[in-house]
Design a protein that fits this description.
The complex is a heterodimer of chains A (about 325) and B (about 260).
Chain A (H helix, E strand, L loop, with lengths): L1 E2 L8 E10 L2 E11 L3 E6 L5 H8 L7 E6 L2 E3 L3 H7 E4 L11 H11 L4 H14 L15 H13 L5 E5 L7 H16 L3 E5 L3 H7 L2 E6 L2 E7 H5 L5 E7 L3 H9 L4 E4 L4 E4 L3 H14 L2 E7 L4 H15 L1
Parallel strand pairs in A: 1-11, 4-9, 4-10, 7-8, 8-9
Antiparallel strand pairs in A: 2-3, 2-5, 5-6, 10-11, 12-14, 12-15, 13-14
Helix pairs in contact in A: 3-4, 3-5
Chain B lengths: L9 H17 L2 H31 L8 H29 L3 H5 L5 H33 L6 H32 L3 H23 L8 H15 L3 H28 L3
Helix pairs in contact in B: 1-5, 2-3, 2-5, 3-5, 3-6, 3-7, 3-8, 5-6, 5-9, 6-7, 6-8, 6-9, 8-9
Classes of the chains: A alpha/beta (about 325), B mainly alpha (about 260).
């Protein structure tokens, strides 16, 4: 397990957490300290993401170990954590029986707002999410996009300092998705903490500064996203024509190691300017057309897939 | 961030859940009609008292008949239907829409949820039994003057007991049934079955000599005990049975909430 340190005080602290469900261990010896403004919670299906969210809200009680959110110990301060958090749950719908604005106002009342104030804030939250007159229609007939907006409004209505978002962009069309992500980014920049559980790693990469990767109930990675996506030191990738086996042999003859190559890309080790100069010299000698050369960049998706495959390999 | 900074009190949460259920119920035309129907018996009862008084004063005839018990037994009809109408959809609807976990993401614990739903049935049911009674007591004290203050006070105490026990029992019956299934109509059938089958089975087994076993007959017998024959063992049994129906329904609701208020 990798564990990078963060500069500010951690707001999620998990220490050797064990949690069983239905007699089966779901979270095993989980430890992490996360302090990013937005933390991405990722992992394969069944990795324990929803269970961890349940534990961090104090809804599920661990068998052993300790957890704290916003400095509040769980499950002792579960109600206070839930009063200070806004949760958008993937599997749960909208409070049924009334209109969208009714459901949002009721969510506010559940979190301690008086009815009149809850109704005022419900309208404000729905305005911010650009929900128009549809808010007065029965929530039962809402489209997926409207449902997602309404669910986000329910999580925001009481102005929480922590947002727990479980797959917020599921079912949204591309413009709706972009709009929702912009809004979450804005909320994060206003100072709210965000815990984003998602399978869409591009969303996590764009929003989160820290990542908690779960693998079969254990922590596979906990730390900054940047650590996973930073350019690989000493690895350069070139694209072009003539970068073949013979080119690799010519590079080896001048002391530059080829790491991998195929029709798309040619990756070699570069320890400094001398290796780079040697690469260009060999390319000129052999008439290779190099169209692009740069440091090898890793996307979060690549890094996470690598970590998950490494985890599978260990099992 | 100036949100709800402290966790809300249990009372606030309970009130919010109960008020929402009542608002949703009030939107249904059938329930409005039932509510209005439950206001009719007191009006009829007041008319009966006034006629009786007129007959006594005009012809000097003492009818020696107190229609209070009949009024209460009649009033129990619309109140039962009202309880069925409010209680049977309240948990089943939440379960069908998978929103029990939503409650858990708020500062709500399972007993808040269950008690809030129970109160949404118990309060209007008890009020509809009690408020007309209060009105009648005041009327009999002031206009008809056929009851002394002590008599009116005792009558009110009995009515409070009947209203509270009936509200609690019917809340347990309907909300408990609603917690057992995911469709309101199944919950309605289940609650109706509990209203009738326990008595039917008991009567069959004992060849018609059983004490009340269902909530409907228990309410009826309790009223007879309090307003006619006097509180006897059978009356006490009915009181205990009704409390048990309420507690059973509350237990089922809390148990259901505990199981489903999780991710």
């Amino acid at each position: 397990m990798l564990n990078a340190t963060a500069a500010s005080a951690p707001w999620i602290e998990i220490d050797r957490l064990h949690l069983n469900r239905g007699g089966r261990p779901v979270l095993v010896d989980l430890s992490a300290r996360l302090s990013g403004r937005a933390v991405g919670l990722v992992g394969a299906n069944g990795a324990g993401k929803s269970t961890l969210i349940g534990a961090l809200l104090g809804v599920l009680r661990p068998k052993s170990g300790r957890a704290a959110v916003l400095g509040l110990p769980l499950p002792a301060a579960a109600r206070e954590v839930r009063a200070r958090a806004g949760v958008m749950a993937e599997q749960a719908g909208i409070f049924p029986g009334g209109s969208g604005v009714d459901a949002v106002a009721f969510a506010g009342m559940m979190s301690g707002l008086a009815r009149r104030e809850a109704l005022r804030r419900a309208h404000r939250a729905l305005d911010a999410l650009e929900v128009g007159e549809e808010r007065y229609r029965p929530a039962k007939g809402y489209s997926t996009g409207m449902r997602q907006r309404c669910k986000l409004a329910m999580s925001l209505v009481h102005d929480p300092e922590l947002l727990v978002l479980d797959e917020p962009t599921v079912g949204l069309d591309p413009p709706g998705r972009a709009q929702l992500l912009d809004l979450i980014r804005q909320l994060r920049d206003e100072g709210r903490r965000v815990l984003l559980s998602t399978h869409v790693l591009r969303d996590a990469e764009g929003l989160c500064d820290e990542l908690l990767l779960l693998d079969a109930g254990t922590v596979s990675y906990a730390g900054p996203v940047a650590t996973l996506t930073q350019p690989s030191a000493g690895r350069l990738v070139a694209c072009g024509d003539g970068l073949d086996e013979a080119f690799a042999a010519a590079l080896a003859a001048v002391g530059v190691e080829t790491l991998e190559h195929d029709e798309e890309r040619f990756v070699f080790a570069s320890r400094g300017d001398a290796d780079l100069a040697a690469f260009w010299r060999v390319a000129a000698e052999r008439g290779a057309a190099v169209r692009r050369l740069g440091a090898e960049l890793t996307t979060l998706e690549d890094a996470v897939v690598d970590l998950m495959e490494a985890g599978n390999g260990r099992r | 961030m100036a949100g709800a900074e402290r966790q809300p009190s249990s009372l606030h949460v309970l009130r919010a859940i109960t008020a929402r259920e009542l608002r949703l119920a009030w939107r249904r035309r059938l329930l409005k009609l039932l509510f209005l129907a439950s206001v009719l018996p007191p009006v009829i009862f007041i008319t009966v008292i006034l006629v009786r008084l007129f007959v006594e004063r005009s012809f000097g005839a003492d009818l020696d008949w107190d229609p209070m018990l009949r009024f209460l037994q009649f009033q129990a009809g619309p109140v039962t239907l009202l309880a069925l109408g409010i209680g049977t959809p309240c948990v089943a609807r939440d379960r069908a829409e998978d929103v029990l976990f939503l409650y858990a993401t708020r500062p709500v614990v399972p007993w808040h949820y269950a008690l809030g739903k129970l109160a949404a049935v118990a309060l209007p049911a008890a009020a509809l039994m009690l408020l007309p009674g209060l009105l009648i007591a005041v009327l009999r004290l002031t206009v008809t003057q056929d009851l002394a203050a002590a008599g009116a006070g005792l009558m009110l105490l009995k009515m409070i007991l009947v209203a509270a026990v009936m509200g609690w029992a019917y809340a347990g019956l309907t909300v408990g049934a609603s917690s057992g299934v995911k469709r309101a109509r199944w919950a309605m059938l289940l609650a109706i079955a509990f209203l009738f089958f326990p008595d039917m089975i008991a009567q069959l087994v004992t060849f018609g000599r059983a004490w009340p076993m269902g909530p409907g007959s228990a309410v009826n017998r309790l009223m007879e005990s309090l307003f006619d024959v006097g509180l006897d063992w059978q009356g006490l049994w009915c009181l205990a049975l009704l409390m048990l129906y309420g507690a059973g329904g509350a237990w089922v609701s809390v148990h259901r909430a505990r199981r489903e208020m999780i991710p």
